Amino acid sequence: MTSLFNKKFLPWLALACLVVPMFASYFFDDMFSTLSHLFDNPSLLELGWNSADYGLYTSGYSVLCVFGGLVICGMLLDKWGVRITGSIFVGMMAGGAALVAWAITSGLAPKTSLSVAYVGCMLFGLGSEIAGVAVTRSIAKWFKDGPMAFAMGLQLAIARLGTAFALVISPRLVAAKTPGEIYSLAETARPAFLGLGLMAAGMILWALFVAMDARFDRMKQSLSGGPVLRQAQEPEEEQFRFKDVLGLLKNKQFIMIALLCVFFYSSIISFKKFASAILIPRFGVPVEAASWMVSMLPFSTVVFAPLFGIMVDKIGKGTRWMVVGAILALVAHLLLAFAPAGVPFYGYLSMVFLGFGYSLVPAAMWPSVPKLVPAKVLGTAYALTYWVQNLGLMLFKMFAGNILAAKSSDAATSNAAGAVGVEIMFVCVCILALLLAIGLRRSSALKPELRLDAPSRK
Fold it and tell me: What contacts 307, CB < 8 A, 6 or more positions away?
């Protein structure tokens, strides 16, 4: 069959369209991360949420994903294709975000606005995750036998710029006030409305990708001499069957990657949600410094995720890099938990280690999935991985919020105690991630035919 790379610019144009919805999704998801300290004192927010409320709201992202939605929709993705399924869930992502923005500005009682925002976050979360699966599956298709790891790393890097943008711009949109002043609903919602604007741009570019993908599939069918079919289906033996899902659940290496995804991402994404509530009391920095400190995570991936993707494409050794990345994440959280208090240097150093780990593990992990599962269930495989990841994220966000709320008071020492408690939890999570990475490394050595450590590019 004619290669996608006969017109080399087309995959990159497709990638350019795919990254913008993900940029918007990452921005909206992290828009309150460097404002999380505000929820320590709900009397200063017209919104009226405390840290536990904020933790509950952020956990809503994962609810529909965990309770069946992500797996079912992943199977629909394999059955219906990325164009139909992706379009539905990109729209759901934007609709859920709009509901969150409305809830924040509605003037409803705090518990009522929290409930509405929770529903919106659930819809946003499921839409974002399935959109992410559709994007990853599309990259695997368009860059098959090409620089897949680099393309996935580049997509991840640009998407995480959305996180970096949120971490830096949100404290400027919701500027610090003098003691005793109240943050109005409109002020609190400014990051949400900026996120909605970004999603509108993402939806336009997604529509352009859908048109490109449909046209290109027709071209492939025409060049192969076959009939032009809707969704450009593969031969019958390659069609998705629901029984194929059972094969995934019996794949030991796939299960290990899914669990590694849970614990590794929980140690970083859940941390980001409470970044300012941890960094400010631990290292005695102002909110602006804390926002720049945690923004080192996504900014580092912008540079290093594509570079590490090239490294995996060229030389392989993917499981080795997963182990190294897990070690770096563990060292980072040990510093965050036990380094001397009030010394910002240790905060910056921990972000350096965490940023390298955040670039290494995904660059090696995501391109490993197509090596372990057939293309016809690739969407389901990614959806299962995201499903178990979201289960961990939902729980660890709630745990972190409850730990901080239990320790919260006007005393700085209490805030620091809550931050240390949350970090001890993340250290335990990182240890589990490291054990799984070591298990994958051993499995690859025992079964070289899996090609987990082989270069991605043929």
Answer: 153, 359
**List of residues 6+ apart from 154 with CB closer than 8 A:** 15, 19, 305, 306, 309
CATH superfamily of the domain spanning 8-447 = MFS general substrate transporter like domains (1.20.1250.20)
H or E segment and range at residue 169: helix 148-173
- pLDDT tens for each residue of 208-257: 999 988 887 777 676 665 554 444 444 333 454 556 666 677 788 888 88
Q: Which contacts of 416-423 are long-range, i.e. CB under 8 A and separated by 24 or more positions?
A: 416/281, 416/282, 416/341, 418/277, 418/281, 419/277, 419/278, 419/279, 419/281, 419/282, 420/282, 420/337, 422/271, 422/274, 422/278, 423/278, 423/282, 423/333, 423/336, 423/337
Cα separation, 96 vs 268, whole angstroms: 24
Tokens standing for residue 168: 């830096």
Closest CA to 397 of 275, 281, 266, 260: 266
Quick: pLDDT tens for 73-131.
Answer: 667 777 777 888 889 999 999 999 999 999 999 989 989 999 999 999 999 998 998 88
Instruction: Answer for the pair 344, 283: CB distance below 8 angstroms, yes or no.
Output: yes
For the chain, the structural domain boundaries read: 8-447
The helix/strand/coil state of 45 is strand
The pLDDT of residue 222:
67
Checking if the pLDDT of 9 tops 60, the result is yes
